[in-house]
Amino acid sequence: MKTKPIYVEIPILSKMNELWEVTQQPHMHEQWDLRFSSITYKHKQENEPQLFTYETKIGFGLKIAGWGKSVGNFNGEDGSRTSSLHFGTDQAISIIREGRGYWKYKPNGNVINFSTQYDYDVNFGKIGKVFDYFIFRPLIGWATALSFDVVKRWLEQGELPKSQYIRFFCSWMITLLFFFVWLYHGLVPKITHTHAEELIMLQNLISINDDPAKLITRLIGLAEITFGIILLFYRKKRKLFLLQMLAFPFLAGAAIIGNSNYLLHPFNPLTFNIALFVLSIIGYVLYKDIPSARTCKRKR
């Protein structure tokens, strides 16, 4: 199973010294790079590589600690700069054992093409290689690309990385919540366990018998599941959040017209749909110009 080195490139409208500083200074680098929670430089000896340690929090109180060293910087005649790195960790739980890579800063008119390429050896033998190939390598490549877009927005628009990541992860939390809501309400009370109140509500709105009501209810459930899946994968999510903002008041009104006694129930259609309506507004606002890994070039 042959793997390719991870490559990410993005043009950044910035001065060379500014980009160099936010990517080479540890206290600034750790702010935008998702791969590291903290970076600490060690005291540098003259004519020796710059040594550093890093930590990456992986959740549940666990973290990966590793070492690294800047094995050389090169300044090209065209004004470009290259920084080469050697990194690794001795922790057994880490998928990465040891690797090498570089960062390259190449001026191109008013922008700098900021790129990286790195590769690494993995732990856990064949199982580790399979896990790396299908899961970890795509994930860390995505994290690298997302981080590059964050530093680009930091330098070009002035928005701090912390603020960008809050918007990004809150946006996706709301998306996953809506995906679950549409999936659950389409699947459970409408298809797998067609609830009697779903049928009664529909029959109160339109005069139909039980069998057509069951069919229509299941079709509505299928439509809800489909919408949830589209919401999860469709890139222009603001359009779908806008559609939800129009749909939830209608759904609340239809449920209440179908059976006004629902207003007496806990977590009734009115309060439930108002909550989803407000969350749709928040999602619509948050998804405006969030960072994205898609802005980066991923192949040489």
Automatic annotation (TrEMBL):
The keyword NADP does not apply. The keyword Zinc does not apply. It comes from Lederbergia graminis. The lineage of its organism: Bacteria, Bacillati, Bacillota, Bacilli, Bacillales. Keywords: Membrane, Transmembrane, Transmembrane helix. The chain crosses the membrane at residues 165-184, 215-234, 241-264, 270-290. This is DoxX-like family protein.
